[in-house]
């Protein structure tokens, strides 16, 4: 806001409503605002205003609505706010306010109906009884973004609320942390609740299903990520108005009630994931005619999926059954049902059978954006209709028993994972599209070379074609895929040198070229990799609660509206296998933004280890084992501050193990076995005190603990030091001097030979006899050859 605007604003003495929402205003609230004594409504939401709140706001005695949502205000709330006795609506959510919330700030606001303090940086304890005398209060929002804020509801003991709430959000607020994390007892007296969010609070005890009996108008209930236990099936009270129930991430046991449709006849979104529920899905769940989203993942459900789940739920769009014990041929046959299902997770179960052909006009998957059937026992081939699913979809069939050739279709995938199956033939060029970000083809039986069409993967982040039967040279154009973060080409039959163009991949965090037939030296320019400039992977659940359940709509006509926010449906988590500490680990989600490694093991690489690799300071894993590398271990490997696994075994390295490596405080695996190393081992300090003799075996000239070889003066003088060897590089030789000395040596040799023949008659005669015999031998050989031809 400019100063001219401030001056002009101050002249509106009779102004009652100031609505400046959703602009790009910056700076502070002008102190001249106190001159607008007639103001009843101030809405400055969704701007970029900052600074602390001016005390001039406290002089606006007629103010009824103050909306400062989604700005960058800082500092503490002025305590003089308690003088705004006419205030009905107060929303300061999504700012950066700090400090505590004193009870005196709230207690005198007797007209208050709506208050939202969510998404700030408040700390300390807040007593909910501060609201007890606010008889008009209907909506309260506390959604904390840190673990330093606590809401206390049980003190003073026996307090009685004068309000009847319609909406309450107490998420991540450490509710009653010092009282055993119990459910707030004042809720027993609340009978008008429509929306209740008490997620992320570690509350304990039995499932408070009485909340649904106590509040017959309850539409939204979220108890996710607490520690509620007990049996889910009983008691479960009927509530015809409940449309959204999220009880995920708790400790519930038992089964889904057989007649759940009687308890929740109007349910649209049901999330019971992350519990200990078991048994089959009741067949009557197909009678939940309003159901749009169902998440039963990460439980112990078993049996077959009832057919009614696919045939009757015509509104179902999201179905997640991951990580259970389901079995049966769930996708076999002709899947031609009139459903709107767009997101289907069947992964990590025991499903089997073939995948039936999909009638895209009337199909269970007639336009899916996401299909995940990974980690099951599906067999056969992928039907052509899968490749003709909706535009820019995500498909994951990892770790099944599927085979044949992958069909080409009209689909432009953004995420495609068909790894760990039996697909064969050449890699289909039709898979390539500019929209593709994650391509996993590893652990199959693909043959041939890398298609030239891969040069068009301009937005690719993950490319996994490892553990196949691919051959030929690694294409240079891979170095032009500037966005790529993970490149896995290991366990194939690639040959030739490592292309220097790969050094251009500065955003690569994981590079695996192991288990091939690569030769030549290691390019020193690989120091350029492992420098990601941004985070590319996320770890967001497909189903999460709303960021705020209550949103101010119009500063003049209404004070709050309770809006059904849809679940956030994110893309699939990327998952890759990478060998770390001699084991193959699966890395998933945002861990991939942290993990970094370089694996060149099991090839035919020669030459010295480039000292430049010591500049890979972010790297966690470096594996150069099972090659033909020579020379010393670079001293500057001591700069690999984040290294956890360093494997240089089965090479022909020589010299000492640098004592400077003791600085590597994160090193967990160190292996230099079966080389030609010599001299005293590094002192058994820090991480080196954890390495046993297995790390050094196959090097008979090494000595010192933990080996049995004792260091003597003779053993220490056998080899020069690493510092001396680091300067003995053949490619640093003066070639002009080399050729000069070589030519002069031969010239002196020939002169000496001629002088010998002139001085010694005996050797002169022997030389002439030798020349004559060579001439006769050649003559008779040629004669015999001509005679045989004729």
Q: How is this fold's topology laid out?
A:
Elements: H1 3-10, E1 17-19, E2 26-27, E3 41-43, E4 48-51, E5 65-67, E6 72-75, E7 89-91, E8 96-99, H2 104-107, E9 114-116, E10 121-122, E11 124-127, E12 139-143, E13 149-152, E14 167-171, E15 195-197, E16 204-206, H3 210-214, E17 220-222, E18 227-229, E19 244-246, H4 260-263, E20 269-271, E21 278-279, E22 293-295, E23 300-303, H5 308-311, E24 318-320, E25 325-328, E26 343-345, E27 350-354, E28 370-372, E29 377-380, E30 394-396, E31 401-404, E32 415-417, E33 422-426, E34 438-440, E35 445-448, E36 462-464, E37 469-473, E38 486-488, E39 493-496, E40 510-512, E41 517-520, E42 550-551, E43 561-562, E44 575-580, E45 583-588, E46 597-599, E47 604-608, E48 621-623, E49 628-631, E50 645-647, E51 652-655, E52 669-671, E53 676-680, E54 701-703, H6 713-716, H7 722-725, H8 735-759, H9 761-789
Parallel strand pairs: 1-3, 2-4, 3-5, 4-6, 5-7, 6-8, 7-9, 8-10, 9-12, 11-13, 12-14, 14-15, 15-17, 16-18, 17-19, 19-20, 20-22, 21-23, 22-24, 23-25, 24-26, 25-27, 26-28, 27-29, 28-30, 29-31, 30-32, 31-33, 32-34, 33-35, 34-36, 35-37, 36-38, 37-39, 38-40, 39-41, 40-46, 41-47, 46-48, 47-49, ...
Antiparallel strand pairs: 42-43, 44-45
Helix pairs in contact: 8-9
